[in-house]
Amino acid sequence: MGWVHRRRDLGGLIFIDLRDRYGKTQLVVHPERRPDLAAQAHDLHAEWVIEADGVVQARPEGMVKRDLSSGEIEVELTSFSVLNRCLPLPFQLDDAAKASEELRLKYRYLDLRRPEMQETLVLRHRMANVVREHFTAEGFLEIETPFLVKSTPEGARDYLVPSRIFAGQFYALPQSPQIYKQLLMIAGMDRYFQIVRCFRDEDLRSDRQPEFTQVDVEIAFADCDTVFATAERLFEKILRAAWGIEIALPFPRYSYQHVMETYGSDKPDLRFGLPLHNVTEHLRETEFRIISSALEAGGVVIGLCFSGKASLSRKEVSELEDLAKTCDLAGILPLKLTAEGFAGSLVGKVSEDHLRAAAAQLEAQPGDLILLAIGKKSSVLKGMGAFRRKLAEKFQLFRPDLHQNPSLFWVVDFPLFERDEETREIAPSHHPFTGWLREDDHLLAGEPWKVRSTAYDLVMNGSELLSGSIRIHDPQQQAEIFRLLKIPDEEVELRFGFLLEALRYGAPPMGGMAIGFDRTIMALTGGSIRDVIAFPKTNLAQSLMDGCPSTVDPQLLKDLHIAVVPPKV
Prior knowledge:
Strand content: 15-25%
Number of strands: 22
Mean pLDDT: 93
Strand order of the largest sheet: 6-9-10-22-21-20-17-11
Distance between the termini: 55 Å
Shape: globular
Radius of gyration: 30 Å
Oligomer: single chain
């Protein structure tokens, strides 16, 4: 039984490719032997559902298909019946790339019939089994946590669920099981994991969904080394199962400051070079107004060396300047280093010695192209980080389909707080239960934005796969963080009182992680996040297939004590 993938009428023979989740099987009808079946088969169309009976036999010599699991056999039909017909398809499954994503999402059940989509869901299932087997073997318990929880600030807006019984009160769908897994450690569960659905009402990006799956993990009496080793052994198994490759352990560790200043990103792709360098001091003595005015305003000059690209034409360099503008850079200053010397707009405006000093820091050689960006440090680093990635894609500096040498590493020493540059107010860089390095205690009172946290990320090929931290387990330290965040005592008690009380009953040191399960599958397949989830939402958090969100029966709203107020025009 299955779906008719294709019917081929070759005159003397009729072939029907019957498809199901396991692959395709070739059915064959001999018209001279069974003219009745030939007449029936002539009426078949793609995606009709049929039941077929016949004799399994070896394919004739020369007709074997080695690339098919059933390529050595065929079924000579003795009878078949149509179980269901199919309307004309809104898009051709064999040519789905030509269909818009909106159309594919609206008819998701058809899109999921495609073998490549089914293979992704099979991989997802296999990875879930690897996760469960790994944590079970290492003594973890899979424990479910609630979906109807208390609304607590965790960095994004909550999805709210109104209570019918308690008028005007709401549950929230969990952004993560963060508080509950800490409570499980206080309860003595020691080692917990869960493959869990989470919900965040936030502005969506290409790698985000409003509902997503993460592998949630917590370990009592843990330090960073314990958590890292646990995760590394898991990803060693994942890459072996998915790609059949072995990776070296342990993974390298880089500080947040290092990756930001060297690659302009806290999740850089290290499969190619193009490191960034701050060459401000070498170019400070210049009358070139573009540079001098930016430096007077506190700006910097960040450069990268593009090896062997001094031969690019003026038109090609101009295209790179346009590419830089798509990365929110005001522009880019190209400087070619040739055997004869420098060439570019900086020649004659910056001394030869200073240009040579900048080139030396960039490790540039004759034949290389130096690309410089100027402006506020944080924005230039971010823009150059995006620019180096686009350069690598444009010039194919890495193979997206080559899995032999994935780049996996830890990013550590994230700042505990973020500071608004206008209001000077601080906010937690992660959730407010994240610990900090004790050697930075002296900075808490006066310069809390300089305090380094115990948070960490695992990055692979430019994607953040895992995020976690060693938590605060001391109630006094937790209260100090709330005080620094200027959260009133009444709000602390309202939002987190139950957690603070639990911490007073003998909470052990603890640490953990949340592995983005969808994002990991996305990194393994090279697809988009919507391709690795069976029924995803659009960038506007809509489901085009079933039409949600939608209005509901007014009586339901009345039962929930809710009145919908039309938005102001």
